[in-house]
């Protein structure tokens, strides 16, 4: 009996060892294919901070967080009552100065004609005086008339120049007020999604105050980090794919858009602790997001197909 037990013991141990090894092989993570590089990070959107350019009280807001807006859509309207009054006053002043300019221009044209006539009369009078046809007193009268015409033209030209400068200043003031009035209506600069509504109706805002933060969900990016030994394989334009936990069955197409030129220590938000103490290079992937399913802040896994001519494997795995 003891002999039989002694014979079975090595067999059982061998069977257990083989089973353990098979179980280990079965559970062992698949290695990453040679033509792929892996990284992870968070989805980032192109954020646009929309600010007020003129002071005013918010009288209308179309901001609703999470809704989409088109370029040119009205986001916020500020009270423009005072600006409209100032603009009306500026336009009235510009119109009054324009009437004065037209009057002076007409008067100047008349006096320039008088100056030409007086100059011709003076030339004839001097010729007649040389022939002693007219008395000296008559020549003096003609000379005085010519001098008066020249002086009047010079004075009117100076007045007209001053009025034209006033008219230009009034038109400029009106144009500036029109620009400020236009800026009381704050529009979306791009097609985007409202990420943050930063003001409420009734609030008074100053220039520079952020009224909304928009995000372009159609142009999202994913920033991943690769170790120095791998970064030489990556080229701009390399194809990539990304996957988020919220949509585990869908892979999003991407391209390498930027590669950092300097190494850094791995940021804290990288999910593999052993890699946080190594020096890495940041790689930014531009993702196609036509349906707007990818949202800023989503954690994503990414694979870069760096090897030219290689095909994507049937299944993308996350290395452990």
Tell me what you see in this structure:
Among the domains are: 49-80 and 186-211, RNA polymerase II/Efflux pump adaptor protein, barrel-sandwich hybrid domain (OB fold (Dihydrolipoamide Acetyltransferase, E2P)); 81-182. 40% of the residues lie in helices and 28% in strands. It contains four helices and 13 strands. The protein has a six-stranded antiparallel β-barrel. It has a four-stranded antiparallel sheet with strand order 5-4-2-7, with no helix packed on it. Helix 2 runs antiparallel to helix 3. The longest helix is centred in the first third of the chain and has 50 residues, at 81-130.
Features:
single chain, 320 residues, alpha+beta, six-stranded antiparallel beta barrel, four-stranded antiparallel sheet, 28% strand, elongated
Sequence of secondary-structure elements? HEEEEHHEEEEHEEEEE
Radius of gyration: 42 Å
Shape: elongated
Average of the residue pLDDT scores: 87
Using DSSP, what is the number of strands? 13
Strand content: 25-35%
Helix proportion range = 25-40%
Instruction: Give the oligomeric state of the chains in this entry, treating copies of one chain as homo and distinct chains as hetero.
Output: single chain
Tally the helices: what do you get?
4
| Class from helix and strand fractions | alpha+beta
The largest sheet is: 6 strands, antiparallel, barrel
Biggest sheet: strand arrangement: 1-8-12-10-9-13
Uncertain residue segments: 21-27
Give the CA-CA distance, first to last residue.
48 Å
